[in-house]
Amino acid sequence: MKKILFTIIVTLSNLFAFSNNKNEIRSVIHLIDYVSNDYDGAVKDGKVFSVQEYSELTEFNNKLIAKSHEIQLDTNKELSNELIKFHGLVASKASVDSVKKSGFLCKSLIVTTTGYVSYPSRWFDLESAKQVYASNCAKCHGQDGTGNGLEGVGLLPPPRNFYEEERMQGISPSNAYNTIRLGIEGTGMKGFNTLSDAEVWDLSFYVVSLRYSKLNPTLLKVKRAKLIDKISLEQLAESSDYALRTNYNIKDKEEIASLRLLTPDIDKKQYLEVAKALLDQAYSAYINNNYSDAENKGVMAYLEGIEPVELQIKSLQPHLVAELEKVMMLVRKNINDKVSNDLLKKNIDQAKATIDRATLLLKSEKKSALWTFFMSFTIIIREALEAMLILVILINLVRSANAQKAMKWINLGWISAIGMGAIAWIFSEKLVSIGMGKIEFFEGMVSIFSVILVLYIGFWMHSHTEINKWKVFVDEKIGKLIRSGNYKGLALLSFIVVGREVFESVLFLTAISANKAESGNNHLPIILGAIASVLTVIVISYIFINVSKNVPIRKLLRYSSIVLGLLAVILVGKSAHSFQETGNLSIHALPFDYKNDVLGIFPTVETTLLQVIIFTLVFLFLFAYKPKSKPVIS
After folding, report:
1. Residues near 358 by Cβ (< 8 Å), separated by ≥ 6?
2. Which residues contact 46 (CB under 8 A, 6 or more apart)?
3. DSSP string spanning 495-553?
4. CA-to-CA distance for 610 and 22, rounded, in angstroms?
């Protein structure tokens, strides 16, 4: 019992000690990296051959012990023993291998003890890194990375030459990350605090990969394909080339180069791994009492990891999508409610297990050209029908008022929206790179705007169902509009209604293109599916317009206002759900799990309450409010 109590006390004290110490923890890891990586430049066969280098390593070796004590890392007995062992190995001029192995173990124990996350949440982008390097590093390290930059002349020690094989093989991207972020005390290497985490990680992988950049890319692709399941992003980030050879038995130079230069096709779109990494980061932040960061990571785990592949999963096992949303929502709710660490860990593990099931499902499914065509067709049909209903109502309304000039503006609106969608598709990869969170927030705002417009038009239609009022409107309002040619409001509504659905379709089609058909590896099935769906919607629209054009105006307006009222209820549910996914609206679960995307129904108090409010307003206005009649103006 005493032992258990002691363990609990130590654990709680560790959590308290490590809160808000992220930079200090990183500093200790950085010192261990520096000593480990530069050790072979000072000691060989138990003898010092560079007094200056060894003197510097001794200074840093003492600093890491002092800093570890300062932030109470040594309260963990196993970690404390390994830190002391590492310090002793360097002091006694032990072998290079023993120092490196002890340093690696120290870092592993620090991560385990503190929950510190030392790897990125997504695979690196070397193209983006080139731009960051040119703007921030080339002036000292040179455009080619050989350390010959103009501002590096005269610096002691000189800027690192990233092609220096002996030194670079001991540097992992994680080492490079800490150096870029923190700098190196007493040198010209200053820390970069203005760069984002993603930029620093990209840059870290880039500098480690430079010396392999001239190898045959075709050969490297073959090598990389063989290593898809052998090493994870976390392992790659934490491992130097030396560690890849010794810890993972990856000895072939081209294989190591392929890991440094290429992200496997399956992993470039392996969003589910991103979700798991972000959940780990959320837990790490949570146990360190950084609740705001934990909440943000929990939200991004869904937006950046689950949503981009949601449609693919739904096409295979629809219930699994609902299960994923449920477990991810539970994690976010746990963070918001500040539950115990154990409960949050339990639910995160459950979420990760569900994500693993989805991963296996996607890996086992071969994406044929027919599958891609069908998914493209289904997505656009689903999105377009919603917009079509409003456009058909507008077109019939204009026809009944004999305001044919307004048709040009309505057509201008929806054609412009489709044109914008085509441009968005061309730049779809960049569009997704801005982050699903920003996209979801944008969708939520557009949905709210659509709700307001749809309610306004629906209520307006209802107020004109009395035939005399309609005639007044036609004679006064439409007549003035025809004479003035002011139909910009109709064009705007047409653009927004269609644009929202087009934008959402582009996002989903981009996700599908991430898993292109194996039979052709091109966009043709997606394009053909889009064309087929557009043609189908045009046919359905034509039938709707011609069937409804002979409907009496009173009935047309009445039915149209009811349809628009129901659309407002659907849109407000979708809007609230988008804001919940971005963390801008709280989440309180209902006792049932029913979910229907088409109807905008989600099992949360917030979405349901807003839909009930809008439905009540629509019902009262449509069925309790009786528009007053006005005399017909002759």
Report:
1. 272, 309, 313, 320, 324
2. 93, 94, 95
3. HHHHHHHHHHHHHHHHHHHTT--TTT-SSHHHHHHHHHHHHHHHHHHHHHHHHHTTS-H
4. 40
Helix (H) or strand (E) holding 48: strand 47-48
Long-range pairs for 401-407: beta carbons < 8 A, 24 or more residues apart: 401/473, 401/474, 401/478, 402/474, 402/478, 403/478, 403/481, 403/482, 405/482, 405/485, 405/487, 406/481, 406/487, 406/490
Cα–Cα distance between 537 and 542 in angstroms, integer? 8
Asked if pLDDT for residue 390 goes beyond 70, the answer is no
Q: Which residues of 379-393 are buried (b: 16+ CB within 10 A; e: fewer)?
A: bbbbbbbbbbbbbbb
- What pLDDT band is residue 340 in, cutting at 50, 70 and 90? very high
For 495, phi then psi, to 5°, come to -65, -45
pLDDT in tens, 31-59: 887 788 778 888 888 888 888 788 878 88
Q: Any residues with CB less than 8 A from the CB of 617 and at least 6 apart, and which?
A: 455
Single pTM value for the model: 0.44
What tens digit of pLDDT does each residue of 441-495 get? 555 565 566 566 556 655 655 555 554 554 554 445 444 544 555 667 667 767 8
* DSSP strand pairing (47-48 vs 43-44): antiparallel
Neighbours of 579 (CB within 10 A): 21
Residue 254 in tokens: 């081209």
| Measured CA distances, 156 to 153, 159, 187 (Å) | 9, 8, 7
Q: What is the mean pLDDT of the chain?
A: 75
Position 410 scores a pLDDT of 78
Question: Mind listing the pLDDT tens digit for each residue in 193-211?
Answer: 788 777 889 999 999 999 9
